[in-house]
Design goal:
The protein has 439 residues and is mainly alpha-helical. The protein has helices at residues 2-22, 28-48, 50-61, 65-93, 95-112, 119-135, 139-149, 154-183, 185-206, 233-244, 248-263, 265-278, 283-308, 313-334, 341-353, 358-369, 373-402, 406-425. The longest helix has 30 residues, at 154-183.
């Protein structure tokens, strides 16, 4: 009798064993990566909205495009200047706390703008609060998550998290444009605020700062103890800046990348939609074109990384900037009420070129500054946002003064030619094992 029970138990165990084998437990790292992906998508909502608000705010409050552009430029500048310190904040206070505070700050700024009545409030809400919040969730967020939680599949995870920004842009640009067109700018602002608040509980409940917090090894690696909070990261960030600033390549990289920001985030992301509206294009159609740029942005970045492994990064940058400049010179002739094939070609090409400059710029930072290259790139990225901020403001001023964006397109095309020359002037560094920025 006992043997029969034992046999029955063994049969049951054999029956369920294959099921356990085919249902492996998902490593916590993938859950953290999924939360990061959703968080970046939520953050993309705020990056999508400023360019759509220029005309509605101009018509609602009577503010000039230059004044509205100044608030957008403040947002971009603070985003760039906050980004180099974001990793230090996460090392000191933890990823989860920093991201929750950042999302809450951005949501507060977007929600408060619903009741704004004065220009200084736009500067505070969309300029300061949104700028600081989004800057704290810049590239350092996905890089920190990837470095802590993954040893294997880092390249795959980096690509997925990079795609999150473009995915969010693809979702929120047409959605916000439709909301503005049908219901006005205020519901659109509330929508992006809610997008951030919805993500907050997931970050707080599912995000963890380090695999050791839940007793795990990083995916594909071995268990390591969680390091103690660091307090000198911000000081090191400044020391590396001062050291790099004493070298010529830093200024050439920072200057060319500032032009990159000026001709992408500052120009196209901020002023393409209002410029298309000037030519009679519907806001939803213009926003959809801008969203498509985000799709080809992913393809262009991956292909640029492949090229960077095989060709001189300086020459790649020169080609990218030169082609971008030519396309900007042609754009004023392509703007029309309807979307036609030449405009589609421009959108596809510009999407491929949008952040294709990142892999070769990062490779040159690595070549020139060795172990300090990540921090140096953070400051070069800050220059990117400062360049974007200047054109976001000056583009609006030019539209106010001339009644057209044509001058902005032509000037930006000339700047891209300058960036191409700057890239070629960067001297190759042979002794890449010695950090050039060391003070």
């Amino acid at each position: 009798m006992l043997s029969g029970v034992t046999q029955t138990t063994d049969n049951a165990a054999a029956e369920y064993a294959p099921r356990r084998r085919f249902l492996p437990r998902i490593h916590r790292a993938w859950i953290v990566a999924a939360v990061t992906f959703v968080t970046i998508i939520g953050g993309a909502a705020f990056n999508s909205l400023p360019g759509l608000l220029i005309d509605p705010l101009h018509q609602w409050f009577g503010w000039s495009r230059g004044e509205i552009g100044l608030a957008v430029s403040l947002d971009m500048a603070l985003y760039g200047l906050t980004a180099p310190f974001a990793a230090a904040l996460m090392d000191r206070f933890g990823i989860r706390r920093v991201v929750v505070v950042a999302l809450s700050t951005v949501a507060a700024g977007a929600l408060a703008s619903y009741w704004m009545t004065a220009l200084w409030q736009l500067m505070l809400y969309w300029g300061v609060l949104v700028g600081l919040g989004t800057g704290s969730m810049a590239m350092a967020f996905s890089a920190t998550v990837t470095n802590r939680w993954f040893v294997a599949r880092r390249g795959l995870v980096t690509g997925i998290l990079t795609a999150a920004g473009a995915s969010g842009q693809l979702v929120f640009l047409p959605l916000c444009a439709w909301i503005i067109d049908e219901h006005g700018w205020q519901p659109a602002s509330v929508t992006v605020a809610l997008a951030a608040l919805v993500v907050v509980p997931f970050v707080w409940l599912l995000m963890r700062d380090h695999p050791a917090d839940v007793g795990l090894a990083p995916y594909g690696g071995t268990y390591v103890e969680k390091p103690a909070p660091t307090t000198g990261a911000a000081a090191r960030t400044l020391r590396v800046l001062f050291g790099a600033a004493r070298t010529g390549p830093f200024w050439l990289l920072a200057g060319s990348f500032a032009i990159c920001g000026a001709s992408t985030n500052g120009l196209i992301r901020t002023h393409f939609v209002p410029s298309a509206q000037d030519h009679g294009m519907h806001i939803t159609a213009a926003a959809s074109l801008l969203a498509v740029i985000g799709v080809f942005d992913i393809i262009g970045t991956v292909f640029s990384g492949w090229l960077t492994d095989r060709f001189d990064a300086r020459r790649l940058l020169a080609v990218y900037y030169a082609l971008r400049g030519v396309s900007l010179l042609i754009l004023p002739m392509l703007l029309a009420p309807a979307v036609h094939p030449p405009m589609v070609f421009f959108i596809v090409f510009y999407g491929l070129d949008w952040v294709a400059t990142v892999p070769p710029t990062l490779a040159l930072c690595r070549e020139q500054y060795g172990e300090d290259s990540a921090i140096v790139f953070g400051w070069v990225l800050a220059s990117h946002q400062v360049g974007a901020a200047l054109v976001a403001f000056l583009g609006g001023v030019a539209r106010d003064l001339t009644g057209s964006y044509d001058l902005v397109w032509y000037a930006s095309g000339a700047l891209c030619a300058t960036a191409a020359l700057m890239a070629l002037l960067i001297r190759r560094r042979q002794d890449t094992g010695v950090p050039a920025a060391a003070g």
